[in-house]
Design a protein that fits this description.
The protein is α+β, with helices and mostly antiparallel strands. It has a single domain, classed as Peptide Deformylase (Alpha-Beta Complex). The protein is built from three helices and seven strands, in the order H-H-E-E-E-E-E-E-E-H. The strands form two sheets. It has a five-stranded antiparallel β-sheet. Strands 4-5 form a two-stranded antiparallel sheet. Strand 2 and strand 3 form a beta hairpin. The longest helix is centred in the C-terminal third of the chain and has 14 residues. The radius of gyration is 14 Å and the shape is globular. The protein starts with 9 loop residues before the first helix and ends in a 5-residue tail after the last helix.
Length: 137
């Protein structure tokens, strides 16, 4: 376990990840995601396929700590959208303007409760979920 290399192959990242049957199946993935995310000074989130796993798991920095999400989903909490210039650890130097939901109800955390996210936390969650679906900026 520990810090893993970031996958930078667009073709590999364009394949959707597989649902996780039980959280115990991905404990090593979660540990590696957190270790790798912490090693990247600008990291707001990291998806499992960015470090070579095909599981529907990612981490997002929320209130200064990386929280993991397994089989994540979200729902917008209102109609507001925001434009944001996103970057990605898998594509250094590339910046893409995206439109994201401004506030979301996020699911898939270890406590099984919804989290209301806004700002960079909501943007990062949506970005990482795109990764799990094989969508790259």
């Amino acid at each position: 376990m520990g810090v893993r290399s970031i996958v930078m192959d667009r073709e590999a990242l364009s394949k959707p990840c597989e649902e996780v049957g039980h959280i115990n199946d991905v404990q090593a993935v979660i540990k590696n995601l957190i270790d790798t995310a912490r090693s990247q000074p600008t990291c707001a989130g990291l998806a499992a396929n960015q470090i070579g796993y095909k599981a529907r798991v990612f981490v997002v920095k929320i209130r200064g700590k990386f929280l993991h999400f397994v089989n994540p989903s979200f729902f917008p909490t209102g109609p507001a959208m925001v434009s944001f210039k996103e970057s990605c650890l898998s594509f250094p130097g590339q910046i893409t303007e995206t439109k994201r939901h401004a506030q979301i109800a996020a699911y898939g955390n270890k406590k099984g409760k919804k989290l209301i996210l806004s700002g960079i936390e909501a943007i990062a969650f949506q970005h990482e979920l795109d990764h799990l679906d094989g969508i790259c900026i």
